[in-house]
Each structure stands twice: as structure tokens, then as C-alpha cells.
Design goal:
This protein has about 260 residues and is mainly α. Helices cover about 75% and strands about 0% of the residues. It contains eight helices and two strands, in the order H-H-H-H-H-H-E-E-H-H. Keywords: Membrane, Transmembrane, Transmembrane helix.
Amino acid sequence: MNTTLLLLPPLINVVVTGIFAFVILRQYISRRRSYQLYWSVALCMAFIATLAYMGMLIVGPTTLPGTYLFRLYYAFGGTIMPSWLGLGSIGLVSRPRFTRICAGFLLLLSFISAIFVLDATIDMPRLSQIAGTPGTGTLQLGPWLIMTIVLNTLGLVAVAGVALFSGWKLLRKQASMGGIKTSRIVWANLCIFAGAILNGVAGTLARFLGADNVFWLIMALGWIILFIGVLLASHRSRPTPTTLTPQATIPDTLKV
């Protein structure tokens, strides 16, 4: 198959994740919200991972630079990134100190996971046929697989847990959480959850159904839905003039 044609689906993901990361990073620079920082980290990882995949196809998967680019793609995109998306969801509803503790723990796990992926043995015949596929089964079994399962599970549980938590708050008629309408947090996390599920399904289809050709298209759809969710979560409600008096103060945790 033509190399240019094979580069097109990953290129769509590069554009989507690049725009996504730029928008959220700008929001973080403007508002300094921790969850925006963690989502920015995850999105930058996704952007770098997909860019590395494209670079690998250009230089040749089985060349020395190609193998390093594959490891970079797999470490960031397949192993570490989902857990940082989950950390962003935790930062959306948790106290700053708890979020920082989670971030320190996740940073350690991410570092260990990256070392395992860099040290893993590559199945070179499989790598030579990676074009257009996610590269499932290219790394031989090892500790990296355990860390990948752990980090992906933590990320998905965090996203799903926050979605359920915000839904519970809505049922209790709590109008807002951290300055954001509870209903908006529910919809935001439902979109984030759906996007994360789609990204996970892409890999599952590749592994169990052999549908490698739709992997990157499903990933692009997942990122777009995630983008919508993060934008919803980042849009804060403005207080009306009747809700604040000139003497009123806003707690630090609720300031925009």
C-alpha cells in the first residue's frame, strides 16, 4: 500500500491532538487549573506518540531510528497517556493536595513504565509490517505489559469514577462543583469517558478482531469526543450580579 496513504489516518490524529493540546495548554496558561495541566500533558503525549509513529514509517520501522521512534510511540501513546487523562479528571473534582499526591505517584509509575518499554524486546518481523496498524504484539511479553494494563486501568477508572461522582452530585441537586455547573461536569465526563472508551476499543479491535485498518479512524473519533468533553469541563459559569455583593469574597478553590 502507498506510504502516503498509510500516513493519512495518523496525520488526522496528529492534527486533532495538536489542536486539542494547544487549546487546553492555552487555557492552563490563562487560568492555571491543575486539571488543564494534566490534560495538556496527556494530549502532548498523544501528539508526540502519533508524530513518532509517522516518523517511524518515513525512516523505516526496522531501521535503528525507526525502532526508537516505535518505542517512543508505544511508551507515550499505548502505555502512559491514558493515566494522565484520568489524572486530569481527578484534578477536576479533587482537592489540590490529593491531586498533587496522585500526580507524584503517577509520575513514578510513568517513569518505570517508560524504562520497561525501552528495554522490551521487539519482534522485528511484526515491526516490519506495522504500517497502518497500532503495532499490537510487536513488543514481546515482559514487565511493560503489566504496567500498561495498570496505567490504562487507572486512567479509565479515574475517568469513569469522576463521571459517576459528578452524576451523584447532580442527583443530590448540588448546583456547582469548583465553579462549574454540575450538569456540565456530567456531560463533560460522559464525553471524556466515551472518547476514552473509543480509544480503548480501537486497540481491542486490533488485538481480537484484526481490524487494524480502522484503528486510527476510531482513535481520531475518540479524540474529537474527548475534545468536546474537555472544552465543556473548562467552561466555567460566570456569577450573576445578584449572587455577589461588593463585600462578598470567593474562596480560593472557586476562583476562576
